[in-house]
Design brief:
By secondary structure, the chain is mainly beta. 5% of the residues lie in helices and 55% in strands. It is built from two helices and ten strands.
């Protein structure tokens, strides 16, 4: 379940392969419409998630984005999994990442450029019991309406990243 919650977010507003998007364009890529991803690890149990969807909007201005990620279970229930807030940290030239799950985990971290036109999201998760672990999502912008994510986890800051999951996202409702 925790693998699915981190498959997430963000990217640049219709950026072509030849352009190098600004950090603001990367932040705003997911704004508008609804994104969907089929769960490739669905085992068919009623509580398993068959798909995920997310949507984002600007908060105060185009330097801040808020959003939600939902899961649709095989039994038909739709559950909000994560709420997210990202904003430009002008002093560091990257994005600050904040998330909270419906089961009480929270995470903070940064989002920076990866290979000039993609995103590298790295954050530390804290559970209500105080356990901490680390997540890294590499988000590849394939087009204005398609992106891929590879999620990695590690238990301590000094460990090597271990791949946890992959996902593909499509903007199904365009604005």
């Amino acid at each position: 379940m925790k693998n699915l919650i981190f498959i997430f977010l963000l990217l640049g507003t219709g950026v072509s392969a030849q352009e190098s998007p600004t950090i603001k364009e990367l932040l705003n890529h997911v704004v508008g419409g609804t994104w969907s991803s089929t769960n490739s690890t669905n085992e068919g149990k009623p509580e398993d998630y068959k798909l995920f969807f997310m949507s984002f909007k600007n908060w105060a201005d185009d330097s801040s984005v808020t959003g939600s990620i939902f899961g649709v279970q095989n039994n038909g229930d739709t559950i909000q999994l994560i709420e997210v807030w990202n904003f430009i940290d002008r002093s560091k030239g990257n994005l600050f990442y904040v998330q909270r799950t419906t089961w009480g985990w929270y995470g903070t971290g940064t989002i920076s450029r990866y290979e000039e036109k993609h995103l590298d999201i790295q954050f530390k998760i804290t559970t209500p019991e105080g356990q901490q672990f680390y997540t890294r999502d590499l988000h590849y912008i394939d087009s204005k309406h398609k992106m891929r994510a590879i999620t990695f986890h590690k238990a301590t800051e000094d460990e090597e990243w271990k791949e946890a999951s992959r996902s593909e996202w499509t903007r199904i409702i365009k604005q």
